[in-house]
Every structure is written in C-alpha cells, then in structure tokens.
Amino acid sequence: MNLVITISGLHGTGKSTYAKELAKEFGLRYISAGIIFRQIAAERGVTLEELSRIAVKDKRIDRLIDKQTVDEARKGSAVLDGHLAGWMAREYADIKIFLTAPTNIRAQRIAKRDNLSTKEAARQLLTIERIERGRWKKFYKIDPSSNQIYDIVINTGLFSLDCTLKILKEIIRKCILSKQGA
C-alpha cells in the first residue's frame, strides 16, 4: 500500500506509540524524527533540552531532520512521526494527524517514560516546547501547536490507548476506501 500518514503533536501526546501501531496495522514503514533528534543528542553527548538550545543557533540540525522526513515521505508507504512531520511532508501525505492532550497528562506520560517526577517532566516539556516554538516560528514561520493543516485532530487524553487507536484505525480505513473510490 502506498500510503503516507504523518503523526504530529506536542511532547507526550503519544506520537511514537500511535505511529508504530498504525505502521504495523497498515504494513507501512515507521520513521521517527524524534529518534533522529535523540541520536544527534547522544552523538553530541548533550540532553534533549541542550540540543534544543543548540538548534536555535544551528539550523543544520532541523534541516537534517526535515530533509530525512521529506525523503521518506517521497518514498511512500510510511508513517512519519514528528512534531513537524505534517508540515514537512504535507504535499506527500495522504493523511495528516495531529495529537493533543492536556499538559498534566503529557507530563505524567513523560515522567513514567523517562523515570522523572511529574513536576520535572512538566518543566522539561514546557521548556523544550517554548524553545522549539520560537525556533520553528523563526525558521519556518509556523506554530507547531497549530492544527490548521491537519486532516484529523484527536485528544489522546480523552480515551484509553486502545480506544484512541481503534478510532484512528477506523478513520484511516475509511480514508483508504475513499481514496480507492469505494
């Protein structure tokens, strides 16, 4: 199936979790901008927050991730997970999904994932998002929290993971049928 789905949203909304599941369900490749960003941070021996601050001054970091996102979208048959995936791959994307959730839920998820206190997770995610928002407005003239270009916007804090996944799968199936003219 030559389908390109993008999954965007703020930190802790479940982008990677949902993207991996959708890729598996529809037999698509899974590509993560977050993994690329984490690899760059690890290679440089810095935290994600530190790399976010470095990226404010060094456009090459974002450009590298953006180029890889667009290249993978061009290849097709993929689920692209990343804050800007919808923006970067939009001309190649068949379905653009934006995930949202309240800050307290996102902080709890990140705290559990990264073994942090909820307070520290909230501090980190809000700091990183503030830095990223400024960087992306400066570089791209876009607000990554804006959902204006997306086909589907869903609050992952409303339902369980399984329920939200079921909703997304059903919407995608309907989109595929519509694309096939059924």
How do the strands line up in the largest sheet?
A: 2-3-1-4-5
User: What does the largest sheet look like?
Assistant: 5 strands, parallel
User: What proportion of the residues is helical, as a percent range?
Assistant: 55-70%
Radius of gyration: 16 Å
Percent of residues in beta strands: 5-15%
Q: SS-based structural class?
A: alpha/beta
- What is the β-strand count? 5
Low-confidence stretches: none
Number of helices: 8
Task: Give a quick summary of the entry.
The chain has 182 residues and is an alpha/beta fold. The protein is built from eight helices and five strands.
Mind explaining what this structure looks like?
With 182 residues, this protein is of the alpha/beta class. Helix content is 60%, strand content 13%. Strands 2-3-1-4-5 form a five-stranded parallel beta sheet, sandwiched between helices. The two termini are 16 Å apart.
Question: Which structural traits does this protein have?
Answer:
182 residues; alpha/beta; five-stranded parallel β-sheet; 5 strands; 60% helix; 13% strand; globular
SSE layout and pairing:
Blueprint lengths: L3 E6 L5 H12 L2 E4 H12 L3 H10 L1 H17 L2 E4 L3 H4 L6 E6 L2 H12 L3 H23 L11 E4 L5 H19 L3
Parallel strand pairs: 1-3, 1-4, 2-3, 4-5
Helix pairs in contact: 1-8, 2-4, 3-7, 6-7
